[in-house]
Amino acid sequence: MNARTLLGAAVAAVAVMFAGNGVAAADSWVDPADYMVGDTVYFAGSMGGCTIRPNGDVGCDLNGTGSFYGIPAPDLVIDVAFLPAHPTFGLFGRYARPGARSLPWDNEPPYDREITSLISYAGATCVNITGRYASIACDSKGHYFKYGVGGTQVR
Known about the structure:
Blueprint lengths: L2 H17 L16 E2 L2 E6 L2 E5 L5 E11 L2 E8 L37 E6 L2 E6 L5 E6 L2 E6 L2 E4 L1
Antiparallel strand pairs: 1-2, 2-3, 3-4, 4-5, 6-7, 7-8, 8-9, 9-10
């Protein structure tokens, strides 16, 4: 296997893992400038409201309660490179901003069509999936979290 084939396979594997349903269409990427207030990106996703700060910190207030190793968690954040994604239990304020613009979602019946929206800013990328497998997932500083219909995952 040559290096080009190996690189192509690696890129495809990352895209499938991150998008969850194959390589995302070009129109599923959203422009973070449309979601900025000052130097911070705020958006509402299908499973929570999130913030991406200019230093790559990312956090989401969850719609409902996630689970962090069996402990109920109202939010998840990636804010330091030496810690995995973790909850702050609201100690540092909220990550959702009232009135934040929503990422694209399906507003046409039957409302179960999956739409994947990706937003990237300051080295952090978040993926919002609507429909039957609704979830929000963010990756930054070498760590990842996902919250949605399938439960909570952190690394």
